[in-house]
Amino acid sequence: VCGTAAQTGEVMCVGGRDHGIELRFRWGVHYGYYAVPIVSKEQVIGVLSLYADGCCSLNADERAFLEAVASTLAAIIERKCAEEKTVRFLEENRRLSRRLIDVQEEERKELARELYDEMGQALTAIKTEAALILDRCQGAGLSIGESARAIGAAADHLYGLTHSLIRRLRP
Fold first, then answer.
1. What is the crossing angle of helices 120-136 and 142-169, to 10°?
2. Which pLDDT belongs to residue 142?
3. For residues 34 and 98, what is the distance between their CA atoms, to the nearest angstrom?
4. pLDDT tens digits along 36-65
5. Using CA atoms, how far apart are residues 84 and 80, in angstroms rounded to an integer?
6. ∠151-156-159 over CA atoms, to 5°?
7. pTM (two decimals)
8. Parallel, antiparallel, or unpaired: how do β-strands 12-15 and 23-24 relate?
9. Where do runs of H (alpha helix) occur along the chain?
10. I need a surface site. Which of 42, 53, 57, 168 has the fewest CB within 10 A?
11. Rounded to whole angstroms, how far apart are CA atoms 127 and 122?
């Protein structure tokens, strides 16, 4: 009966002798059985099963009531499915956000490493060359010595700036 109600999308009412099905749970007491399809977006998503004392017959108001109950159940099911979908989307969004932060952190780590390795080596070489120039021109003109000191100071400044950038990238 439920399968027929689900296939046809119509309320099924069985009991008594009208459909050739007789339902008895207690000796001598006849029951009626109702199968009401639960429809969501023009698709049957379930069947509401009800038993009633006596034979099975529905007037228009009773049929409308059962259909309204099934419609309410469909709305509840739709809402629950939408809530579950929202929870899944939020969890996926959180997972992707965490992944994005991890990727950014990894990129910053790599950039800090490159800055440290490349800039550090280059600045150390500049400072070394400036120190050599300064040592070689001890007795020579002051302008070469001043230039060597300026190169050394610029290298120190760049070295400090590089370390500051690295600390900002990788606290």
1. 160
2. 61
3. 51
4. 999 998 899 999 988 776 666 778 888 899
5. 6
6. 125
7. 0.56
8. unpaired
9. 2-8, 60-114, 120-136, 142-169
10. 42
11. 9
